[in-house]
Design brief:
It is a single chain. By secondary structure, the protein is α+β, with helices and mostly antiparallel strands. It has 2 domains: about 5-140 and about 300-370, D-Maltodextrin-Binding Protein, domain 2 (3-Layer(aba) Sandwich), CATH 3.40.190; about 140-300 and about 380-420, 3-Layer(aba) Sandwich (D-Maltodextrin-Binding Protein, domain 2). It is built from 20 helices and 11 strands. It has helices spanning about 5-15, 35-55, 70-80, 90-95, 110-115, 115-120, 120-125, 150-155, 165-175, 190-205, 215-230, 240, 255, 270-275, 315-330, 330-335, 345-355, 360-370, 385-400, 405-420, and strands at about 25-35, 55-65, 85-90, 130, 130-135, 135-150, 210, 210-215, 265, 285, 300-310. The strands form 3 sheets. Strands 1, 2, 3, 6, 9, 10 and 11 form a 7-stranded mixed beta sheet that branches. A two-stranded antiparallel sheet has the order 4-5. A two-stranded antiparallel ribbon has the order 7-8. Helix 2 (about 35-55) links the parallel strand 1 and strand 2. Helix 1 crosses helix 17 and helix 15 packs across helix 16 (about 330-335). The chain is globular, with a radius of gyration of 23 Å.
Length: about 425
């Protein structure tokens, strides 16, 4: 379907779904979001356009920086003073709506939001609790395989499309460029994600299902062994080797900057950061997702942020109309651009493409993420405590303090214990 037809259908659907407001009456909504000055300016401009198109609805904006924003929202929700429309972090659904009743069920306004037309069910599922759609995904972000094409070309190699190719490439790279060159690298957290990448591709299951690790001990052992073998085969440096430069982020590591560490598994949204960190003359590309382990899609992904409606708002249809306008109206889409990342709304993507507002490595990476996204993550997976404990487990393996088998058991036991304590 071409862009003109998409926009025409969107306009017709919006006009048909728009709530009826008695003549002479005005509906007042509040909307809140956090961000920087550019996002504030663009959102205010889009709201102004909304009020011009729907003069019966007035929107009072409430916005600020990230610092202290979650605490502010918590106070509002507890005190029942939250705005009608809220920009929320995805994991706030678990924080404020574990039973699914913390926010308004958007299934009740699905026609206004055009859910079937603009969003994949897999993406919507990440915002559903007990059958209730708690929020509308604004964007999705995920991990992709970045490869330093220049380094591979120096070794006479193409960009790898599988782990098998990467393992074979590593030997050639070392032989031609030096023993301090590696085909790939990641930190302890990235090592966990590589293990989960393999596990989900094999089984079709995410890491956590029904508040416990979804994999058998044997499956996790093989995943840990997969990562350990990448280190032993010198596809990637050991944690001890990479720590020689100090405990610094990979994009600041001399091995990455100079092209000696020729790949990583990182966020699509940080594409420019990884490219800019390289010394001049080096080209970073997005590699295809390896599919050595099965046919299941397994790219690590999550909803980056979402729009939610206050659970007891007096104006759910008008609030939904505002959200739909900000995510689907062509003029609003052009104004907002990528101020909240690459949109998950298909109409928005089509409009931005047509207007040449989606270009570059970051957009390419985000497109790849959407095409190979796994089933998403449990809201508690990125909890600071669990994150720290999983990193420590991998570091114990990397410094040869634990065996592959012990590491696998620790991953399962620590995760299950944490989930039991926090659910």
């Amino acid at each position: 379907m071409n862009l003109k037809k998409i926009l025409l259908m969107s306009s017709l659907c919006l006009s048909m779904a728009y709530p009826t407001i008695a003549e002479g009456k005005t509906v007042n909504l509040k909307m809140s979001w956090w961000g920087g000055d550019a996002r504030h300016k663009q959102t205010l401009e889009a709201i102004k356009l909304f009020e011009e198109k729907y003069p019966e609805i007035k929107v009072k904006p409430e916005y600020g920086g990230w610092q202290g924003w979650q605490e502010k929202v918590t106070t509002q929700i507890v005190g029942n003073t939250s705005p009608d429309v809220m920009q929320i972090n995805w994991n706030w659904i678990d924080l404020f709506s574990r039973d699914g009743d913390g926010f308004y069920d958007l299934n009740k306004v699905k026609d206004i939001l055009e859910l079937d037309k603009n969003y994949s069910q897999e993406l919507l599922d990440q915002c559903i609790v007990n059958g209730k759609l708690n929020a509308l995904p604004v964007g999705v972000t995920g991990k992709v395989f970045y490869i330093n094409k220049t380094t591979y070309e120096k070794a006479g190699l193409p960009v790898p499309t599988s782990f098998d190719e990467m393992i074979k490439s590593a030997k050639v790279i070392r032989e031609k460029l030096g023993d301090d060159y590696y085909a790939f690298d990641t930190d302890a957290y990235g090592a966990i994600l590589l293990m989960l990448y393999k596990l989900e591709q094999e089984t079709g299951k995410p890491f956590i299902v029904d508040n416990k690790v979804a994999y058998t001990e044997t499956e996790v052992i093989e995943a840990v062994r997969f990562y350990d073998n990448l280190v032993k085969e010198k596809v990637m440096p050991s944690l001890k080797v990479r720590a020689a430069a100090g405990f610094i982020p990979l994009d600041q590591h001399p091995g990455w900057i100079q092209g000696r560490y020729a790949g990583t598994y990182e966020w699509d949204s940080s594409a420019q950061k990884w490219q800019d960190a390289l010394e001049a003359g080096q080209e970073l590309v997005v590699a295809p997702y390896p599919q050595d382990f099965g046919t299941n899609k397994s790219g690590f992904n999550k909803v980056s942020m979402a729009y939610a409606i206050k659970k007891n708002t007096k104006h759910p249809e008008e609030a939904a109309t505002l959200i739909h306008f900000l995510t689907s109206d062509p003029e609003a889409i052009k104004i907002l651009g990528t101020s909240r990342g690459v949109p998950s709304n298909e109409t928005a993507v089509a409009v931005l493409k047509e207007n040449n507002q989606l270009t570059g490595l970051g957009f390419e990476a985000n497109t790849v993420v959407k095409e190979f996204a796994g089933k998403g993550i449990h809201p508690l997976f990125e909890h600071k405590r669990l994150n720290t404990e999983l990193r420590t487990i991998v570091e114990n393996l990397g410094y040869e303090q634990k065996t592959v088998e012990e590491t696998a058991r620790d991953i399962i036991n620590i995760t299950n214990e944490f989930l039991a304590e926090n659910n």
